[in-house]
Amino acid sequence: MLSVLTGIIVSIIEMFYAIKFVKKWFIEIQFLPLKKFKFLLREAPTEFFILLIFFYSFCVLSGGLVTAFFARNAKKAYAILTGSILFIIVLFHVFFYPFPLWLKIIILPLFLPFSYISYMVGNFVELLQRKK
Question: Does pTM top 0.90 for this prediction?
């Protein structure tokens, strides 16, 4: 369970920094503090959300990789558990903040495949560690 917790914490930290990183790319929202995240979501352009979806997906993938790397047994199961937990966290995040409707519709079918890709990453890490 420590490996799952480590993967989730790494992913959440990556998501936090992804928001800050993507925010720097857009001049009109660059000086808005992260504490006013709801205002940012109402005023941000569409490209902001597209990049945010990309970085959220990458964070789920890297969280599964970290989990699979630290898990001793059942790497695949723990990687997909991490992806599923992160999917639930982002699901609550999306529905409790004023994201656009198209983002809410896109993000639901997008995170479950990335949970499965985390499973595949766990399989790959298990294969690499068996060869050692």
Answer: no
